[in-house]
Amino acid sequence: MHILTIETTCDETAAAIVTENLEVISSVVASQADIHKRFSGVVPEIAARAHVERILPVLDETLKKTDISLSQIDAIAVANTPGLAGSLLVGLSAAKSLALAIGKPLIAINHLHAHIYACKIAAKAEIFPCVGFIVSGGHTNLYHCHSATQFEYLGGTIDDAAGEAFDKVAHMLGLAYPGGPEISKAAMTGNPQAFSFPRPYIHDRSTLNFSFSGLKTAVRYQLVGTGKQSFQDLKLSPEKRADVAASFQEAVLDCLVEKAFLALEKSSLSTLCLGGGVAANREFRRRLTERAEAGKVTLHIAPPELCTDNAVMGAIAFEHLRTQDFSPLDLDILPGLVRS
Ligand code: KG4
Ligand code: ZN
Predict the structure, then answer these.
(1) What is the mean pLDDT of residues 87-93?
(2) What is the pTM (predicted TM-score) of this model?
């Protein structure tokens, strides 16, 4: 069986064809990073318009890369929650049109469930039940994942997402969007102890929450003080840039790693699955791997190309197909986060 999956929740226009054995037949991701670079972040209206321009070429290319024709597709799947409203609408409209045109079922998928499912696709093994940790540009959430589609919210950020903090601090340091990969590169030559940035909640075992907006402000004060100087006028030495990047990354990772293992402890689970763009961070992966080995925890982190947004993780649609969990053609988008 083959499912054609569509992903347009944020700023990647993606489509893939996957089989029930979680084999990837074809996958195309058109990133909009170049368009959003000059704004140092995603501009929702621009993202939606770019999806409109890209969705048909992306679908065409996805089909052209294989011998599979549309008539051999058994269902059309699309992420309809959570995400940017305009972006979600483009993917959903394309998916509905295709489903109607070929007379096959429409399957709605949850983008956060899909991020964790990427671990199962990569592991080619069962991963549930597990603690699912989604760390991306829009989310920093911990879940008790009872199954692929039953998530219980354990905690998350009360303000900025970790990826958002990476992007904003990268902007302060004069680094390009998306900031995560740039910071991680700059941090490689920096001293993670050079600056002591805040790590909210880290010693509070009663909560699995995070807060990154104060950390962002602390970096700002470190760079420009309380004055009005703009980041553009900063004459940062490469050494200071590297030290701030390394110290910032260390503070974020300290919080993420600590709470991930506290979540395992609190939920009495021994499997940790990590998804979302920030999961591509090499230092984050290294630290989790080290701690998992020491604590006899089974750790699954998807390969970097399945951490950032893609349509392959839409293979979670087979879990819905199995139970005939299809959606009607008047399915709507659900931009906001539904916690479980
Ligand atoms: O999952 P994703 O592609 O989109 C959302 O659903 O948000 O995540 C994008 C986020 C961006 O904030 C980006 O800076 C961050 O993931 N990111 C990273 C790395 N690669 C991407 N953050 C830290 N280190 C990385 N290597
Ligand atoms: Zn995502």
Answers:
(1) 98
(2) 0.95
Q: What is the spatial distance between Cα 28 and Cα 310, in angstroms, rounded to a whole number?
A: 8
Q: Provide the CATH number for the domain formed by 125-306 in this structure.
A: 3.30.420.40
Residues 312-323, mean pLDDT to the nearest whole number: 98
> For the chain, what percent of residues have pLDDT higher than 90?
93
CB 273 within 8 A of CB 300: yes
From 136, 141, 168, 188, the mutation candidate for ligand 1 (largest count of ligand atoms within 8 A of CB) is: 136
- Strand duo 75-81 + 106-110: pairing: parallel
Atom from ligand 1 closest to the CA of residue 134 = 1
Residue 71 pLDDT: 95
Q: What is the C-alpha separation between 114 and 283, in angstroms, rounded? A: 23
CATH superfamily of domain region 2-115+309-321 = ATPase, nucleotide binding domain (3.30.420.40)
Strands 12-19 and 2-7: antiparallel
